[in-house]
Amino acid sequence: MDKRKTLNTTALGIMSAGLLLAAGAAQAVPDQPKAWEKCAGVAQKGMNDCGSLDGSHGCAAQAKTDNSANEWVYVPQGTCKKLGGKVAKVKPAKGMEKS
């Protein structure tokens, strides 16, 4: 009898944990944007996404000042101007240029 009770308690615990995880996952992260844009002029010092627009460096996290016009971050499409930034042109990857 004790063995059956232990198995039932274990099964109930596993099911409860699964339900809690499923409920938490459903509310944990909102829907991700479908489109992004490069937003220049809103990146904080050391928080830029990639190389500067003027070519002064080629890596993320190298912005020397807040809100530099040459530093950018990706934001959901349509929010850059609301943040006070300017949408930067996206250069196509090598070999992906339009003919």
Structure description:
This protein is of the alpha+beta class and 99 residues long. The protein has two helices and three strands; from the N terminus they run αββαβ. The chain has helices at residues 2-28, 80-83; strands at 36-40, 72-76, 86-88. It has a three-stranded antiparallel sheet with strand order 2-1-3, with no helix packed on it. The longest helix is centred in the first third of the chain and has 27 residues, at 2-28.
Features:
2 helices, 99 residues, 3-stranded antiparallel beta sheet
The gist of it:
With 99 residues, this protein is of the alpha+beta class. It has 2 helices and 3 strands. It has a 3-stranded antiparallel β-sheet, with no helix packed on it.
